[in-house]
Amino acid sequence: MTTIQDIENLIFRVALGDRRAFGALYDATSAKLFGVCLRILNNRAEAEDALQEAFVNIWQKSDTYAANGLSPMTWLITLTRNKAIDKIRARKAPTTDIEAAYDLADPNPTPEAAAIASSERARIDGCLAELEETLASAVRGAYLDGDSYQELATRFNVPLNTMRTWLRRSLLKLRECLSR
Amino acid sequence: MSDKTEHTENDIALAGEYVLGLMSADESAAFQARMAHEPQLKDLVSSWGEDFGTLTDDIDPVAPPAQIKTAIQTRLFGPKKRGFWGMLAALFTSKAGSYGIITAVTLVAFLAFGPNVNFTGAGPIYTANLSAADSSLVVNARFDQAASALQIERLAGGAKPGRSLQLWLIAEGSSTPVPLGLLSAEAVATHNVPTELHAALASGTLAISDEPLGGSPTGLPTGEILAAAAVSKI
After folding, report:
1. In sequence order, what are the beta bridge partners of B211?
2. Nearest CA of chain A to the CA of B88: how many Å?
3. B229 assigned to some structural domain
4. Are the beta carbons of B21 and A146 separated by less than 8 Å?
5. How many angstroms away from the CA of A104 is the closest CA of chain B?
6. A:21-60 residues touching chain B, CB 8 A cutoff
7. pTM of the entire structure?
8. Same domain, A87 and A121
9. Under a CB-based contact definition with an 8 Å cutoff, are residues A141 and A153 in contact?
10. Which of A5, A8, A117, B132 could form a disulfide with B58 if both were Cys (CB 3.0 to 4.6 A apart)?
11. Per the CB < 8 Å rule, is A39 touching B58?
C-alpha cells in the first residue's frame, strides 16, 4: 500500500531527477489519474494523450511541488485535470453550439452518491448542496468539464455577466461554508 | 480558517475562478503576477485546489494501457537501450543535462563551515522545517541572508552508523539538486552560504538524503530522501 507520504517522497525524488522514482510514482498513481482523464474527457484516446502529457508535466514541474502548498495527490490530480481540460478546450474551439449546449436537465451527482464518498468529498458536496442547484452544477461543470463562463451562461440561459456575478457569489458562499 | 478576516471577498472569488479555469488568459496572467508576491493569494489558491480536488474522490481508478508508461518514458528519456555516446548525448540534453555544470559550480562555491557566524537580524530571515514522515528526523533550517548564514538545527534523528546525512538545495524552477554540505554531528551547526546561492536558497527547497559516509560520491543524491521542505520567508 502506497501512503500519501510515500507519494510525496517519490515526488521529491522525481524533483531530484530520479527516473526510477518516476516509474514508481507512475505505478502508484497512474490508474487514479487515468480515471480522472476518462471522467473529464469521456474519450479513451484523448484520455491516454492527456495522461501522457500530465506525466511529462509532472516530471518537468516536480521541483515546484514543495512550494505549491497542495497535498501530493491533489497536486498530481490538479496537473492532470488541467491537461485534460486543455484538451476539452481545444476540442470545443473555436465556437460552441448554443443549441447543443443548452440543457438544463444536465444530470448532477445525487446526494446519495455523495454519501458513499470520503468525508472530504462529503464536505464539498455538503457545501455545494447549500448553493442553488444550478449554481452547484455550474461549479462542478467548470471543474470537471472545463466549462467556460460563456458555456455556463449559455447552458443556464443568462447573460455572461450575470453568470459571472452568480458564480462569484457562489464561490464566496462555498468558501464560507468550507471554512466553517 | 482565517479566510474571512485576512482575504478580501474579491480575492477569494478570484482565486476560485483561477482554480476553476474561468479566467481569460489576460486575467490569469495578471493573477499569477500578483500571486508571485502575495503569498496569501497562493494560500487561497491551494485551499480551492484541495477543495475542488475532492470532487475527483469518487472517480474510480482505471489502469491505463501498459504502453503508455513506455511512451512517456521514451518521450522524456529517449529509447531505453543506448550506447555510451547516446548516454553522453542524453546527459547534455535531458533533465540531468545541467548536472555537470552545476556540480562544477558548486565545487567552487561549496559551503564553508563556520561555527561562529553571527546572525545579524539586519536582513530577511528564511526558514524551512524538514521532517521525516515518521518524525525520525527533524531539522530546522534558518537562513540569515545579511549574514550569509544557514543555521541547521537537528531536533531529532541523525545519520545511521557508517552513513552521512547530506543537505541539498533545489532552486525554484530547477530540477538539479545542489549539495549544500553534510549535516554536522553537532545538534546545531552554521554554514556560510556563498552570495551566488542566496537567491536560490531564499526561494528553493531543502532536502536531506541518506548517503555513504562523507557524502554522495556523484554530486547527486544517491540514497533515500528522508525529508524535504520549501524555504519560506519569516
Report:
1. B164
2. 16
3. yes
4. yes
5. 20
6. 22-23, 26-27, 30-32, 34-36, 38-39, 48, 51-52, 55-56, 59-60
7. 0.60
8. no
9. no
10. A117
11. no
